[in-house]
Every structure is written in C-alpha cells, then in structure tokens.
Amino acid sequence: MKLVAKTLYGLEEVLVRELEGLGVSKIKRANRAVEFEGDIEMIYRTNFSLRTALSILKPVAQFNIGSSKDLYNRSKKIKWDDIMDVSQTFSIVPVVHSNIFCHTGYAGLVLKDAIADYFRYRYNRRPSVDTDDPDIVFNLRISESSVTISIDSSVVPLFKRGYRRENVKAPLNEVLAAGIILLSGWDGKSAIFDPMCGSGTIPIEAALIAKNIPPGKFRNFFGFMSWRDFDKELFDRVKMTELSKKGYLTPSVRCSDKSHEAIRNARINIRNAGLAGTIHADVDNFFKSESAGKEFTIVMNPPYGERLKENDMASFYSNIGERLKHGYAGSTAWIISSNLEAIKSIGLRPSRKYTLFNGALESRLLKLEMYSGSQKRRSEK
Predict the structure, then answer these.
(1) Are 149 and 76 in contact (CB under 8 A)?
(2) How many Å from the N-terminal Cα to the C-terminal Cα in the chain?
C-alpha cells in the first residue's frame, strides 16, 4: 500500500535515509513528507523506529471534486465500517489549499457529516467526534480539486516519545533534535556535548541514536492499535526485532546548563529514558568552560531572545562565538536558532547552513568548525 511519513521542513532527506535503512522501497521525497510503499508490518515498524517522522499516514481514498457537495457525496461512498466501528470516536485534521472552500474548518465539517451519515444510514447510529482523545484520526488534504483522505496510524505525534516528564520553557521538538544530530553526521562513538541542554532533549536523542534504541520504545499507544485489523502478535514481533538491534554500548554523551532546575529536569528525563549511566549531565556555565584539549561534536539550541532585548542577544551570540573559538579548538559545533539576526553575531563563518523550522519558527542550523591553530596553517598541511 502507499504510505506517507510526515516530517519537519528540512528533514526530508534525513527521513529518506532512515526509511532506506529499514528496507523500504519506492521512496519519493515530498514537501515536509516522504511517500513510500509498505505493508501493515511496515506501518508498525516505521511508527516504532523512525526518529524524524511526525506521523505515518495510510491513504484510504483519493478523488477529484468541483464543489463541497462533491466532497460529501464521494466521501459518503467510502466503506467506513471497514475502517472503524460505529462505537469508536474520531476526529479530522484538515489541510486545505483550495478555492472551493472559504476556510479549512468547513471542509472538515463536510467530511465529518459524510462519515456520520454513512453510519446513520446503515446502523441508525453515528460515531462521536472527539477532538481531545479520539480512537481514529483522519487526515483530509485538499489541493485545489484533488482530495486525499488518510487514516493517521500514529494519532499521538511521534515526537512525543514518552520519556519526557519534566520540561523547561520552549523545549526542543524531539524529531528536530534527532534530525539535527543525524544531519551532523555524528558517528555515535566520538564525544558529543550540549552545553545549553535545558530539559535534555538533544543528549537523550543522541544517546538513543548511538545505542540504536528505537524512539517508540517508551510509548504505550499508537493509532493503529485502535484499528479493526490490529495484529498484536505481529506488532510484538516487530518490537522484539527492533529492540534487539545493537548499537554502541558506551557512547560519550555529555550535557550541561547553568540552571540547576534545568539539570534537575534533564536528569529526570534521562533517567526515564533509561540512560542515567550513559549521559553525564552537570551544572556548568558554558561561557566559563573549555574543552581541556578534547574535541567534541557540539550541538546547541541557545535562547532565541523572547525575554531579552536585541542588543543583549547580539552580545550573547557574540560570546558564544568567542567561547567556541578560544575554548573549543578542534571541535565542531552545530547551532540552531530562530533569531536570524542575532545568530550572525557569532562571528564565525559557517561551513554549512540549513533552513529548518522549530514549530512555526523559521530557524538556521549552522555548522562551525573550530580549527586547532589558524585555518591557513591547517589547509597547508
């Protein structure tokens, strides 16, 4: 069957590589998504193992329309009782770019009515809508006259891993954190360091990658578990296979933050992920730290400046550049920020740039290489 893995902008190629690693065939990159083919076992496997997917969609119908009435009539012909039971709750997530509808919500209401009327006509009952905790989630995508209705096999977005118990303000999305680490090309063995770790998302995702622990390990629910054809025995086999894959047993993962509260929260999350003996988390001020001759892959998500004035942010980012240059020679830093002006103040020329989105915030991911000695002398070697 044709399937769709949704992701964040800028992580499509990383997701393609992940799918290739799972043995998926007929992969096609799209905008914030990757299309591929697979069976029900692959639906289970991708939900359980992909690090940079937000959800896995299974299309159930595709057709063209010329009016809202067309959407209702075509949708009502779908055999909804093959997909869900009348006793189950459902919700609809509409994504609409079409002149046929004056607003996105209306298209969702039309599909809701079609589903409800289908069941009412056949069973004299209708399933209830539950937007908070539905059994089944349908994704309605309309692009001009083209309609695709899909069932969401994840329901709870896959960035909600299940290990996070304690947050600081504006925690980094787990999918984005994993994507940055995979973009960096970190080998899983050499030292990796997050000096502004907040609640610990980056070091946790790094350790999970290095130890080859699937991110779905911590979740108790996926949307497909509410499907009428859910095969628990098959899913258990998939989990056993994915959990048996071996990684590096003792990756060198370190993180710090100047906030005692942040480190307390990070340690709770690290412990919940079963990584207390793997990640070293300490209270430390990055601007007073140094590498002591070690070379790190540094991955950092500094503050974006919501509570600081612009001049203060420029100085803050300038100090990041100075500390990297003078305290971490030989290391490579990956810094993400949505403060597109302040990040220029780092003062180091990036060797790579990526445009990513942290939620709705357009961000830049910079690769900064701190050479031991001058760059000129290094290039002459």
Answers:
(1) no
(2) 54
- Classify residue 229 as exposed, middle or buried by CB count within 10 Å of its CB (0-12, 13-18, 19+): exposed
Residue listed under structure tokens 């100075």:
322
Confidence of residue 373 (pLDDT cuts 50, 70, 90): low
CA distance 323 to 258: 15
Three-state DSSP at 215 gives helix
Angle among Cα 156, 162, 265 to the nearest 5 degrees reads 130
Contacts of 119 by beta carbon, 8 Å cutoff, 6+ apart? 80, 81, 86, 125, 126, 127
According to DSSP, residue 249 is labeled S
Within 8 A by CB and 6+ apart from 233, the residues are none
Q: What is the spatial distance between Cα 130 and Cα 92, in angstroms, rounded to a whole number?
A: 9
Tell me the pLDDT tens digit for each residue of 297-356. 999 999 866 555 556 888 999 999 999 999 999 999 999 999 999 999 999 999 999 999
- Read off the tokens for 45: 């496997």
Quick one: how far is CA 262 from the chain centroid?
A: 22
Distance from C-alpha of 196 to C-alpha of 283, rounded to nearest angstrom: 10
313 phi and psi angles, rounded to 5 deg: -65, -40
Q: Which of 3-17, 158-172, 285-299, 336-350 has the highest mean pLDDT?
A: 3-17
- Specify whether the CB–CB gap between 24 and 189 falls below 8 A: no
For residue 139, the SS3 value is: strand
pLDDT higher than threshold 80 for residue 368 = yes
Q: What angle do CA 9, 13, 15 make, to 5 degrees?
A: 85
Lowest-confidence region among 148-152, 228-232, 305-309, 364-368? 305-309
For residue range 91-118, list pLDDT tens digits in order: 999 999 999 998 889 999 999 999 999 9
Beta pairing, strands 332-337 & 297-300 = parallel
Distance of CA 32 to the CA centre of its chain: 11
Radius of gyration of the chain (CA): 23
